[in-house]
Design brief:
Distance between the termini: 38 Å
Strand content: 5-15%
Order of helices and strands: HEEHEHEHEEHEHHHEHEEEEHEHHH
Oligomer: single chain
Number of strands: 13
Number of helices: 13
Helix content: 25-40%
Structural class: alpha/beta
Radius of gyration: 23 Å
Shape: globular
Largest sheet: 7 strands, mixed
């Protein structure tokens, strides 16, 4: 890693730790970061996916990073899933504790999105107006789109297991309509693997003969340098234009899968929601397998913010005139629930700042007790 490069990409945790270490003279990851190189020479920090400030565990790290960044450092915070009110509140907060801050916002998606709903027998527009694009320019004040009457059903009527479409059926319809490549979001690593195998077995290859030749050549080159990965079961899926992508996949495989997907050689990737943030892997279509996910309290509905994050992977700049989002009928939720979540306002962002012993001790190393108290009072929640 070239720590002296003009641009360094890192997690927010590393940036936060780097600032603490720069003040105290300690090391970060075994590297010595001098006050001069780590802080005084730093021009700007870009905090992508700034709505992670709302994350229950990681949110405090984002607040700390803003609070302790020197006033000389330009902060550029980016997010596509904040309410207008939250964006204004965050702007005022950063302006108050860091320095002059300007809010720049846009309501236009580079590639507009259309939303569909997949049942066992059909793939229908979710909205009554089939041409309606979702959350595009001017729609922030527009009337909410109505649910497609074809998808209306008695909410008390229980959906039977046989009415839930198999992934292979959904993929078949998407291929027939030219809606690939696809990111198919699933909320379980095991189900990602299972669905990928099922599609490869039931649908066969999704690539042309010439594409398969290119895949074979690139896969042979990859395995020649990583022979220990040959018997992992992944190559069989890749040959058919299918792959799984989650934290249980080895990083080498994930990087290779991402490259093939971006080059259009993998048509469908089954992924957990972590793929929705931080990876440049846009698709023509994103599929959300259910509008609920399991938690410690049982199955809970997806938030509008989480849904936006996954849906935002659809639509490739310069390639697609329109992107597609497909919600799949599940045992727990149907079209009415999907419509409710998709047309709701994004959930408000709240402070997750959680001072702990480590934070306090880091601050006390260079500041007096009174100065440390003032630092802790600069949180978004206190503002």
């Amino acid at each position: 890693v070239n720590r002296d490069a003009d641009i360094v990409v890192m997690t927010t945790e590393i940036y936060r730790n780097m600032l603490y270490a720069a003040e105290s003279g300690r090391t970060v990851g075994g590297l010595e970061w001098s006050h001069e190189s780590a802080v005084n020479s730093l021009f700007a920090v870009v905090l992508d996916e700034f709505h992670f400030l709302n994350h229950p565990e990681r949110g405090t790290v984002w607040e700390e990073s803003v609070i302790i960044s020197p006033p000389s450092v330009l902060i550029c915070a980016l997010s596509a899933t904040l309410t207008n009110q939250n964006a204004r509140e965050l702007t005022d907060w950063i302006n108050a504790i860091h320095g002059p801050t300007k809010l720049i916002h846009s309501h236009t998606r580079p590639v507009p999105l259309r939303v569909h709903f997949a049942t066992r027998n059909s793939l229908e527009p979710l909205f009554e107006d089939a041409t309606r694009v979702w959350r595009n320019e001017g729609e922030k004040d527009a009337e909410k789109p109505a649910l497609n009457p074809e998808l209306e059903r008695d909410r008390k009527q229980r959906v039977r297991g046989g009415e839930v479409p198999r992934p292979s059926v959904v993929v078949k319809r998407l291929v027939e309509r030219g809606m690939v490549p696809v990111i198919y979001f699933v909320f379980s690593r095991m189900m990602c693997d299972r669905m990928a195998r099922q599609v490869a077995e039931e649908r066969g290859t999704l690539v042309t003969a010439s594409e398969r030749d290119v895949i074979t050549e690139r896969l042979d080159t990859f395995l020649s340098s990583n022979a220990e990965l040959e018997h992992s079961g992944v190559p069989h899926l890749i040959y058919n234009g299918v792959a799984a992508h989650h934290a249980g996949i080895l990083p080498l495989w994930k990087a290779f899968i991402e490259e093939l997907f971006q080059d259009g050689l993998i048509k469908v990737v089954f992924a957990t929601e972590t793929l929705a943030a931080g990876i440049n892997m846009p698709a023509k279509t994103t599929v959300i397998s259910a509008m609920t996910k399991r938690s410690q309290d049982g199955y809970l509905p997806l938030s509008t913010s989480d849904t936006l994050q996954m849906a935002g992977r659809a639509g490739r700049r310069g390639k697609d005139s329109v992107g597609h989002v497909v919600i799949v009928q599940s045992l727990e939720t149907g079209a009415a629930e999907a419509h409710r979540i998709l047309t709701n306002e994004v959930e408000p962002l709240t402070s997750k700042f959680a001072p702990n012993y480590g934070l306090v001790l880091n601050i006390l190393q260079k500041k007096s007790l009174e100065e440390s108290r003032l630092v802790l009072e600069r949180s978004f929640g206190n503002f």
